[in-house]
Amino acid sequence: MAAEDGARSPTRMLAEGHLRVATGGGAPADGGIAVRHIPHHHTAKKGVGGKNEENNQGDADFSPSQELNKLVNGNNKVPGTLDDYRKLIVPVIEEYFSTGDVELAASELRSLGSDQFHNYFVKKLISMAMDRHDKEKEMASILLSALYADLLDSSKMSEGFMMLLESTEDLSVDIPDAVDVLAVFVARAVVDEILAPIFLTRARALLPESSKGVQVLQAAEKSYLSAPHHAELVERKWGGSTYFTVEEAKKRIQIILREYIESGDTDEAFRCIRELGLPFFHHEVVKRALILGMENPSSQPLVQKLLKESTVGCFISSNQVSKGFSRVADSVDDLSLDVPSAKTLFDKLLSAAISEGWLDASFSKSGASDEDLVNASGEKVKRFKEESGHIIQEYFLSDDVPELLRSLQELSAPEYNAIFLKKLITVAMDRKNREKEMASVLLSSLSLELFSTDDIMKGFIMLLQSAEDTALDIVDAPSELALFLARAVIDEVLVPLNLDDISSKLRPNSSGSQTVQMASSLLAARHSGERILRCWGGGTGWAVEDAKDKISKLLEEYNTGGDLGEACQCIRDLGMPFFNHEVVKKALVMAMDKQNEASILALLQECFGEGLITINQMMKGFARVKEGLDDLVLDIPNAQEKFGAYVELATERGWLLPSFASVP
User: Could you give the residue ranges of the DSSP H alpha helices within 450-476?
Assistant: First the structure.
């Protein structure tokens, strides 16, 4: 084993998990499996790369690049060479830094098809960002988090960071503060949960003690990850996703646009907008530019020039342009009070944008869809509302999520999903905390199985637009709605940026707009996650370790002859549906380690069948066990084989998506 380890680079050894190190105080308490909360947009986790020991033994000059070249030469599915890949990713990264378009970067990286080389993408992205402004550093962290598990698996992420640590000396030649900057990147990756905390321990054992790579790890741990409120500190190190409050950003955008109208200098305008570092707020630039053009018709040619060049040059993404036009379309009636010809002027700008090709032609057809949905009064909608009411009432009685999902699918009306969400929350608000909690739990399941983010946002917009009317019947409706919104963010049904999008659809200073602000305030408070989870009694208030202990005890009790139904009820009584991945993880480890694995697997089947544990929680639980297999085999020699059998069984029974079983 020592000879093999000596023949591998630290990067490869870390990825293959050959090294065993004492983890000390930083190790997870439960069998060495790193605890990770997987964000909603991440699907199945991929484990730390598969082992490939053939042809490596005895090769003292073995390196990751040589291994990757072997993979390329022996696999026709991988296009080009590593050198080609390195050349191709540079313009992808440059374009991303210019446009801030995450989806475009993901699409271009996916089109390269060279999954084996993605660790080099991680290294190149960070090394390029290190030599730039804080905006690019923040953008790099955002992109890595967005690509994680979808395009970048945990092994490639770890290898990419390991390669950076190995080359810290070289980076320091051109970037004097490379050690500190890279330390922030490592800490940010841990906070964003794209690197397991145990990475720091394993990586340190692979690097020479006197290397700058070790200095990076020490700085990451002592200066950032060990500091009080370290998550907030790290996330704000480069200004976060915004450097200003929303109001400050709006004022700055207004000033930039007015100066542009006076000077006509598009390059200067682009430079100022770029310096704001707010690529995901560019729809505000579009909106305010359009309004300026409507308020001052003589400035329309300059407005059109700015927006056209920014879109054609990919400085502002097509999605942000559409959002900006949509926001103006929603407020054009209010604008008409100050600019009587606003509707005519907007139609003129809209027509020009479509004819010149920098706004999708489908926009003009989709503009009224929200209003049509809200005001729809046809027989089908009326019938849908009635059926939805019956389904919701039955759910509150039975607490049967799978049955509700089936009933909703049978209605075959996905275009009215937003109406269902509005009905669900409206009914829940007029009931007790139990029903409110059930509504939030159901919303999470719906977002995984049936509803898109757009459906959920539309439903909340409809609720908020009618908040004043709802308050006539439900006195505390605004605060209840704020809790539902905040809970949706905590449960990862929505992301914080969605609140800005929702707010943009509401009248300023309206009850709905104030409710969104209230939700944002709730989320900004200390320990907001725990408090919001417990707002209706759904959370338990226990510390994570207490919850783990209770899960272990109930599984042990069940394993010693407990009743299946009672075990399911105990899991339900925990009141932590979004921590059920821990139940899955501990159950699988127990099944590997005990003789009566059939009964434990039967419990998982029962929980899945009842909708108690969702497929998302199953995927998280299995992924966490997979990541800890290297540690598990020390105590359970056949853990790998047993886990493979469990994955096969779970895939057959629908607990896992088929793609999970195909991950090497």
Answer: 453-465, 467-473
Please spell the DSSP secondary structure of 135-173, one letter per residue: HHHHHHHHHHHHHBTTTB-HHHHHHHHHHHHHTHHHHHH
pLDDT tens across 209-240, in order? 899 999 999 999 888 887 766 776 787 778 65
| Residue 15 identity | A
State the DSSP string of 529-551.
HHHHHTTTS-S----HHHHHHHH
Full-model pTM: 0.34
Between vectors from CA 349 to CA 347 and to CA 352, what angle results, nearest 5°? 105
| DSSP code of residue 631 | H
Q: Which two tokens stand for residue 275?
A: 């310096």
DSSP per-residue string spanning 557-617:
HHHTT--HHHHHHHHHHT--GGGHHHHHHHHHHHHHHSS-HHHHHHHHHHHHHTTSS-HHH
> What is the rounded CA–CA span in Å between residue 319 and residue 489?
22
Max CA separation in the chain (angstroms): 82
Bigger pLDDT: 57 vs 392: 392
Quick one: what percent of the chain has pLDDT higher than 70? 78
Strand partners, 148: 152
| Tokens linked to 278 | 């707010």
d(CA 368, CA 422): 19
Report the distance separating Cα 371 and Cα 547, nearest Å: 45
Which one, of 84, 153, 91, 150, lies nearest residue 125 by Cα? 91
The tokens for 165 are 């640590």
Q: Under 8 Å CB-to-CB from 656, ≥6 apart: which residues?
A: 44, 615, 618, 619, 622, 647, 650
Contact 124, 93 (CB under 8 A): yes
End-to-end CA distance of the chain: 23
3-state secondary structure of 148: strand
Give me the residue label for tokens 């009931």: 431
CA distances from 230 to 5, 137, 218 (A): 35, 18, 15
**CA 253 to chain CA centroid, nearest Å:** 27
Residue 46 DSSP symbol:
P
Cβ–Cβ under 8 Å, residues 614 and 571: no
Indicate the Cα dihedral angle 521, 526, 532, 534, nearest 10°. -150
Q: pLDDT tens digit string along 103-120? A: 888 888 888 888 888 999
Tokens of 247: 């109001």
Closest CA to 190 of 141, 237, 253, 126: 141
The number of helices, as runs of H, and strands, as runs of E, in the chain is 39, 0
Residue 635 near residue 593 (C-beta atoms within 8 A): yes
Residue 599 CB coordination number (10 Å): 16
* Residues 594-607, mean pLDDT to the nearest whole number: 85
Residue 446 tokens read as: 């719906």
In the chain, the amino acid numbered 367 is: G
Q: How confident is the model at residue 661 (pLDDT cuts 50, 70, 90)?
A: low
Q: Note the Cα 584 to chain centre separation in Å.
A: 22
Question: Is residue 105 within 8 Å of residue 142, measured between CB atoms?
Answer: no
- What DSSP line would sit under 323-358, residue for residue? HHHHHHHHHHHHHHHH-TTHHHHHHHHHHHHHHTTS
Euclidean distance between CA atoms 483 and 20, whole angstroms = 45
User: 423: which 2 tokens?
Assistant: 């009905």
Task: Convert 65-74 to b/e letters by CB count within 10 Å (16 or more is b).
Answer: ebbbeebbee
